[in-house]
């Protein structure tokens, strides 16, 4: 049945059907009916006549669209202006531009390149110092962690040893008490047990 | 105005050219109208839906990227409008307590007279006798020639569901082929 299903589905999807597969479909009563009905629908599609559409108001579907060209132009202009401003600001920051307003007027000065280089070197030195300090601190912290770990382990082992010793002591005490009990029992039983074991003469 | 190709026509319509748009409607109103007619079974409803579909198509025209044929894309939009239309109708019918299959159809006639109708009428009657989900699948399979996978994607269901609906539709009308 699943083979017939596959054949039928493939035919519906691709319109490919060999004579052999067709006779298989037609041999099965369920698939014969499905095949015949599907064929009928396919012929309905081929025979369907695209008759004239009744009168309707086509003009109502159209409306004025907004002037997209000018909108696009405006957006482009805005984008270009924003880009230009970003470039200008970046340049001002990079060149360390300074604006001064005084009684004499308004002045713009740019830092010389050598000054900037000096500042850069100072920054580099500061950065390396900070890195060294960080490294040292990290090493110290690691050492501390190792030492703390060692101490803790030592303490744990000592605790364990103490515990074991205590247990051993307790066990020994218990054994001694048990032995004493046994000894007392043996003392009491002594002669009577021997008398019970004598075999009478015949 | 003379438009050399469909692509030019569509681009002009996108820019808001009225003549181009009306030409486009003239080229595609038939397949879309007949799609609506098969789905709704009623010429008046089909014309209403046709108008709604073209309004939606015009609004969505900018999103058409020529990655499928214009007809396929337009039918898809008509399909969504059709579902909305059907849902509105269904609510109204439920309020009026009427059965689900379209009532008041010009082709309203009992199943037994199906075979006396010809051509288009036979199709429309046959389709109107199917439940909505099966009608959808029959339309997309036999009249729009989609594969099962494409139908599943369009209807947002599994391919098994599509197949099951189609088989039910095929079984529903045990059409006895007329001897011609």
Structural class category of chain B:
mainly alpha
Q: Approximately how much helix is present in the residues of chain B? A: 55-70%
Strand fraction of chain B equals under 5%
H/E element order of chain B: HHHHHHHH
Average pLDDT figure of chain A: 83
- Main interface by residue count: A-B, 32 and 40 residues
Strand content of chain A: under 5%
Give the oligomeric state: heterodimer
- Alpha-beta content class of chain A: mainly alpha
Unreliable stretches of chain A? none
Text of the CATH class of the domain at 6-105 in chain B: Mainly Alpha
Terminus-to-terminus distance of chain A: 103 Å
| CATH-scheme architecture of the domain at 6-105 in chain B | Orthogonal Bundle
Residues in helices of chain A, as a percent range: over 70%
CATH superfamily name of the domain at 6-105 in chain B? RNA polymerase sigma factor, region 2, helix turn helix motif
- Report the sheet with the most strands of chain A, covering strand number, pairing sense and barrel closure: 2 strands, antiparallel
Domain RNA polymerase sigma-70 region (chain B): 24-90
GO molecular function, one term (chain B): sigma factor activity
Keywords (chain B): Sigma factor, Transcription, Transcription regulation
Domain RNA polymerase sigma factor 70 region 4 type (chain B): 126-173
Outline the fold blueprint.
The complex is a heterodimer of chains A (202) and B (180).
Chain A: H1 2-14, H2 19-27, H3 29-47, H4 68-94, E1 98-101, E2 106-109, H5 113-196
Antiparallel strand pairs in A: 1-2
Chain B: H1 6-14, H2 18-40, H3 43-60, H4 70-96, H5 119-128, H6 132-143, H7 148-155, H8 159-172
Search tags:
heterodimer; A: 202 residues; mainly alpha; two-stranded antiparallel ribbon; 5 helices; 2 strands; 4% strand; B: 180 residues; Rna Polymerase Sigma Factor, Chain: A; 8 helices; 67% helix; globular; disordered C terminus; DNA binding (chain B)
Describe the structure.
The complex is a heterodimer of chains A (202) and B (180). With 202 residues, chain A is mainly alpha-helical. Chain A has a domain at 1-41. Chain A has helices spanning 2-14, 19-27, 29-47, 68-94, 113-196; strands spanning 98-101, 106-109. Chain A has a two-stranded antiparallel ribbon. The model of chain A has no long low-confidence stretch (mean pLDDT 83). Chain B has a domain at 6-105: RNA polymerase sigma factor, region 2, helix turn helix motif (Rna Polymerase Sigma Factor, Chain: A, Orthogonal Bundle), CATH 1.10.1740.10. In chain B, helix 2 (18-40) packs across helix 3 (43-60) and helix 3 crosses helix 4. The interface between A and B is large, with 32 and 40 residues. Chain B: Residues 24-90 form the RNA polymerase sigma-70 region domain. Chain B: Belongs to the sigma-70 factor family. ECF subfamily. Chain B: This is RNA polymerase sigma-70 factor, ECF subfamily. Chain B: It holds the Pfam family Sigma70_r4_2.
